[in-house]
Amino acid sequence: DDTPKTNGGSTLPTSFQEMFQINAAVMGYSRSSSTWMPVVLDSVERIVLHVNSGERIKEETMLLALRLNLFPPGAVSVSEFKSCLLAALRSTLPQVWTPKHEEAWTW
C-alpha cells in the first residue's frame, strides 16, 4: 500500500527512497544525500533490476564508477551510503528483514 500515512498531521515516508533520505538526514549526511548519493541510488535500482545479467551489472557498475569519479576526492563515502541503505531496508521491510539479511550486506 503506497498510500501516504499520517502521524499527527505529518506525512510518514512510505517508499524506500523516502526512507533513505530521512535516514541520511537523521545520520547527518544531508550534504551527501543531495549530491552523490542520488547517483548511487539510481544505479543500485538498475543493478537490482538486472541482477540476472552479469554483463549488465558489470556495465552498470562501470557507469557508476565513472559518475562517482566526477565528484571531488573524499566526497564519496561508501560507508555512509551503506548505513543509509541498511536503515532504509530495515524500515521498509520490517516483516521480512532479519539479521541474516544484514549479515549478507556486510561488504
Alpha carbon gyration radius: 15 Å
- Give the overall silhouette: globular
Strand/helix succession: EEHHHHHH
Q: How many strands in all?
A: 2
Q: Identify the strand order in the major beta sheet.
A: 1-2
Briefly note the structural class of the backbone: mainly alpha
Layout of secondary structure:
Layout: E1 5-7, E2 10-12, H1 16-26, H2 30-33, H3 37-49, H4 54-68, H5 78-92, H6 99-104
Antiparallel strand pairs: 1-2
Structure description:
The protein is mostly helical and about 110 residues long. The chain has six helices and two strands, in the order E-E-H-H-H-H-H-H. The protein has a two-stranded antiparallel ribbon. Strand 1 and strand 2 (about 10) form a beta hairpin. It is globular, with a radius of gyration of 15 Å. It starts with a strand and ends with a helix. The mean pLDDT is about 90.
